[in-house]
């Protein structure tokens, strides 16, 4: 977006070095074979659906959404004791890899980190318990962004239909208010996203 804004503002396709998209995929080291795990999971989805053309790119098959997933505000006190929630945070791993890769890397370096919470544990002081679990997930991201990634992929892909997925969309770190297309910085930014795109089973 910053590169696009720079081109519009200066009416030139010449970009400063820090805005030139970096496309070398080899900088992302994958000793755990996460790419193979993703490929295997997508293949198994196609096989389960009986699709004979596994190479075709299609939207991830949607599942029936639990009633609570369409609420604008979630009240954990309404959870049943036998309910289970999977809370997901999509993290930018570029600066968290060892060694880190350039911030202008133009590729998919986002990984989903999750916390699985039982409804029975959130009946009393649920918001405090929830905040502690989310804090643990965030600290884990900073410590080792891709540690145990292969097993995490398996767990996310094997989520049971009864588990309620909850996620976070948007981030203040996108820095959209610092982008200038030539008519000044934006005063207010709003993004319209279809609800179905926020469901964790699209990650």
Automatic annotation (TrEMBL):
InterPro entries: CAT-like_dom_sf (IPR023213), Plant_metabolite_acyltrans (IPR051504). Keywords: Acyltransferase, Transferase. Signal peptide: none annotated. Pfam families: Transferase. One of its GO terms (molecular function) is acyltransferase activity, transferring groups other than amino-acyl groups. Coiled coil: none annotated. This is Phenolic glucoside malonyltransferase 1-like. It comes from Populus alba x Populus x berolinensis. The lineage of its organism: Eukaryota, Viridiplantae, Streptophyta, Embryophyta, Tracheophyta.
